[in-house]
């Protein structure tokens, strides 16, 4: 009898900080079962959640990173050692992860990314995932905090980055800024940012439909919240 294929497998990494090798669990693509998706692209899954394994944490030194991270900058090594490596309590995150584990490793990656001055779009993506994790556990205030952080970082990225990689896709960044402003109740800002995409030619199909839907939603909410007599 053939043994069933486990949903998680060991992926090999080399730590960006200490250069030692280790493994980190990943979810097989064939075992990802998405059941729905929110308008800010937060997905929900049946069974294991692939988001939980997108951050690798070195079991040797504790450095946490994603595939979007660059090499550790020579001029940042001392501050990373002082402010992170020497302060953290080591825990092995190389096995299966719970939602609580995922929150912890993403926050570790956010700290490492900030100390190494990673691209704002990468840090924004980490904050957005943290917000989603708080959404899963229905912690609304914590979710809003990280949605705000993600939105601010995406705005910095849109102004300063050239748009490389998925996190740096300018159309996606524009959409997420508008959507996150809308989720935070800033409907005029949401319409302003989403409006920039309305005349973009060859907009990605998955963004086109979302854009039209959310543009209408936030335009209506803006009208509903406008002061009486406002034009």
Description:
The chain is mainly alpha-helical. Helix content is 47%, strand content 11%. The strands form 3 sheets. A two-stranded antiparallel ribbon has the order 1-2. The protein has a two-stranded antiparallel ribbon with strand order 3-4. Strands 5-6 form a two-stranded antiparallel ribbon. Helix 2 (99-115) runs antiparallel to helix 3 (120-136) and helix 4 packs antiparallel against helix 5 (170-183). The radius of gyration is 19 Å and the shape is globular. The mean pLDDT is 93.
Blueprint of the fold:
Blueprint: E1 8-14, E2 21-27, E3 34-37, E4 43-45, E5 56-57, E6 64-65, H1 77-85, H2 99-115, H3 120-136, H4 140-160, H5 170-183, H6 187-195, H7 205-225
Antiparallel strand pairs: 1-2, 3-4, 5-6
List keywords for this structure.
231 residues, mainly alpha, two-stranded antiparallel ribbon, 7 helices, 47% helix
């Amino acid at each position: 009898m053939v043994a069933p294929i486990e949903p998680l497998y060991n992926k090999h990494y080399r730590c960006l900080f200490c250069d030692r090798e280790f493994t980190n669990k990943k979810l097989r693509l064939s075992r990802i079962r998405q059941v729905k998706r929110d308008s800010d692209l937060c997905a929900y899954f049946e069974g294991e959640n692939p988001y939980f394994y997108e951050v690798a944490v070195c079991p040797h030194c504790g450095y946490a990173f994603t595939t979007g991270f660059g090499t550790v900058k020579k001029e940042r090594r001392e501050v990373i050692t002082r402010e992170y490596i020497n302060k953290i309590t080591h825990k092995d995150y190389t096995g299966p992860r719970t939602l609580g584990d995922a929150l912890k490793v993403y926050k570790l990656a956010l700290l490492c990314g900030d100390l190494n001055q990673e691209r704002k779009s990468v840090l924004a993506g980490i904050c957005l995932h943290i917000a989603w994790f708080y959404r899963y556990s229905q912690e609304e205030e914590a979710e809003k905090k990280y949605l705000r952080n993600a939105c601010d970082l995406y705005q910095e990225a849109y102004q300063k980055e050239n748009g490389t990689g998925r996190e740096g896709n300018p159309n996606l960044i524009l959409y997420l800024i508008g959507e996150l402003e809308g989720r935070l109740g800033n409907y005029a800002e949401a319409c302003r940012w989403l409006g920039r995409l309305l005349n973009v030619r060859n907009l990605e199909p998955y963004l086109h439909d979302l854009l039209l839907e959310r543009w209408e939603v936030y335009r209506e909410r803006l009208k509903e919240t406008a002061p009486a007599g406002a034009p």
